[in-house]
Design brief:
Number of strands: 11
Structural class: mainly beta
Radius of gyration: 16 Å
Distance between the termini: 16 Å
Strand content: over 45%
Order of helices and strands: EEEEEEEEEEE
Length: about 160
């Protein structure tokens, strides 16, 4: 647990903990230190994460963090953040991609993974647990995304 007097902290959850909303036309693989979603054809699906969240009277969400690599035409197109039933962040048409080309064996040290930060303008207050939803889009069969971690940056000042 982070000290609420530190001013800000990042809270992460491992890529393995992601939950695919609809598995139709997706192959889900837990491989070592990451979760890989491989498309069976052109497709899109929501992938949900629930990072730990500290809640104080002054907690605000400042950014969403994703450590991932994309293969082929796969991308993360939308990032939505929810606090209970209240939507905190709606970022569409992001097209986040690190396009590493064809599917391959990823580096055992995690060096293939890039960190993407989606900064939140006018940071909203956080009063409950937070969920991060990622819309994964594939253009063709065998496009893939591998996610090693998803996190939040929160401030408590």
């Amino acid at each position: 647990m982070a000290d609420p007097h530190l001013g800000g902290a990042q809270f992460w959850v491992h890529g393995h903990s992601g939950r695919l909303q609809t598995a139709h036309l997706w192959r889900t693989e837990v491989i070592g230190y990451y979760l890989r979603l491989k498309a069976e054809g052109p497709n899109e699906a929501w992938l949900h994460y629930a990072p730990p969240t500290i809640v104080t009277p002054h907690t605000r969400l400042t950014s969403v963090l994703i450590e991932m690599v994309t293969l082929g035409g796969a991308r993360v197109d939308k990032v939505h953040v929810w606090a209970g039933a209240r939507q905190l962040v709606l970022e569409d048409d992001l097209g986040l991609s690190s396009d590493k080309g064809e599917a391959t064996h990823l580096d055992e040290e995690g060096l293939d993974f890039g960190r993407f930060e989606i900064k939140v303008n006018d940071p909203p207050p956080v009063r409950t647990g937070v969920a991060v939803s990622l819309l994964i889009v594939a253009k063709a069969r065998l496009d893939a995304v591998a996610i090693s971690a998803v996190g939040l940056s929160l401030t408590t000042e």
